[in-house]
Amino acid sequence: MKGLRKKLYAAAGYNTIFMGSGRKEFDPSKPLRSFEEYLKETAEGTAHQMDHPQFDEGVIGSFMSARFLKQANLPGFLPFMSPSLEGKACTAVEGACGTGGRAIAIAARSVLSELSDSVLVAGFEMQNSVKAVYGADILAGAGYYQKERKEGQSFFFPGVFATRAGAYFEKFGEANVRPGMAAWYQQAIINARKNPKAQEYHNKTIDLLALGMTPPDAQRFIPHLNLYDCSKISDGASSLIIASEDGLKHCGIDKANAVEIL
């Protein structure tokens, strides 16, 4: 494989707060913040980091928004996020947990092919709109639903990973593996405490390792894994731009404030 045919950059990244049960201000009894608000905030957060937020193209990614929000045809929201995109190419992508990476890859290809010099890339998820067990059924669409759903756990994707964890425990011994998984959970929360926008930012638990060592309860959840092995669902959005050197100049972004993609 050859290297990239021209220099490619990412810049002006922005994240909203990622809202969910880990945030102290989260209150499911009150109306949720709308997805339009999240999209507008992240786009403006990116735009405010440049002198001229004018984009040639837009890409937006979200998994199962048509079911979580009953909203499909997401490219139509890109000009709402950035008026500079009105009348320009706008694309939506979906790829389960890889949706964000796919959105960036599409933008990178567009810049490398010289169809665009600057592409606004945004991704969002809104999964607190339904109860967890219903959300689990929606998320099962990332697998082969017709062939795998009926045989899977109620919490489908944790169940998929539980099967893998069980096989791993059988080969290497749960007593050898579980402490490592607990340490992973501990480190994830420690990292989140450094980011005011992270869902677990407010987590004040002292003995995180002990939580990570909680024995799995197959009757209440799934075998082999506990709740702390699994990430919480969240509502939030992120954005950045993918640009060529000319794209950075046109947007008024100093190369020192961009990251080169190799």
Set down the secondary structure blueprint.
Blueprint: E1 8-15, H1 35-47, E2 57-61, H2 65-68, H3 78-81, E3 89-93, H4 99-112, E4 118-126, H5 132-139, H6 145-148, H7 156-172, H8 174-192, H9 208-212, E5 235-243, H10 245-251, E6 258-261
Helix pairs in contact: 7-8
What spatial form do the alpha-carbon principal axes imply? globular
Strand content: 15-25%
Query: Ranges with pLDDT <50 over ≥5 residues?
Result: none
Q: How are helices and strands ordered from N to C?
A: EHEHHEHEHHHHHEHE
Query: Looking at the chains present, what oligomeric state does this protein adopt?
Result: single chain
Structure description:
The protein has helices at 35-47, 65-68, 78-81, 99-112, 132-139, 145-148, 156-172, 174-192, 208-212, 245-251; strands at 8-15, 57-61, 89-93, 118-126, 235-243, 258-261. It contains 10 helices and 6 strands, in the order E-H-E-H-H-E-H-E-H-H-H-H-H-E-H-E. The longest helix has 19 residues, at 174-192. It has a 6-stranded mixed beta sheet with strand order 3-2-4-5-1-6, sandwiched between helices. It has 2 domains: 8-128 and 234-261, Peroxisomal Thiolase, Chain A, domain 1; 143-229, no CATH class. Helix 7 (156-172) crosses helix 8 (174-192). The mean pLDDT is 96. By secondary structure, it is an alpha/beta fold. Helix content is 36%, strand content 15%. The two termini are 13 Å apart.
